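Show me any protein, keeping tokens residue-aligned.
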Amino acid sequence: MNPSRYFALIPAAGVGARIGADIPKQYMQLAGQPMLMHVLDTFAEASAISHVYVVVSADDDYIADLMAAAPHLQGRVTVLFDGGPNRRDSVLNGLQAIREQAGDDDWVLVHDAARPGLTCALIERLIVALRDDAVGGLLALPVVDTLKRSDKNTQDARVAQTVARAELWAAQTPQMFRYGLLVRALTLAAAVTDEASAVEQLGLQPRLVEGSPRNFKVTLPHDVALAEMFLKEE
């Protein structure tokens, strides 16, 4: 029996409206290159990763220039123009597009294009922790802040409840599951915001692997400076 391989799948079809940029968030310049390039470079450098797939929208006007400027990614990264209206659809479309390349027992690491702080060490940590796991799992961080639930979703909200933080984790990516399981989970899933949620709906329990604060998601304008600080430290 051939050993399982590891594929990276990066959904990058979103527009990142909350950050208020003129171009899709994943193509914003960060520390001298597009945000997406940092992610692709990291996966391309990770020796355990057999191949990298990035899923963009059918009318993406930026990916061609990005790839043309990165000849070192040729042969390591394939662009799939199969992006959907949301993350779940983009990931599932991407998985279906690589059906001929991936076996059901191969692992897929799904990673946010807007988490440029990922490192090869974090990828290795995730793979080592999960390669023999029956379910798979994700990078995540234990919640350290005191959490408050509001009485309404407005600016004048008040505290309705303090939420106990014990046993709470903040999900990150990559989220790593076997190809066959992930296709089944996402095909059956209703509205989910990450792959682990879809797997949970099958009654399974993904494993939590401690990530890193630098692997945060760039979502709001003030996140850009923090991401650049981490990236320039390298």
In short: The mean pLDDT is 93. The radius of gyration is 18 Å. The helical segments are 35-45, 63-68, 87-97, 120-130, 179-188, 195-200, 221-232. Residues 100 and 179 are 12 Å apart (CA to CA).
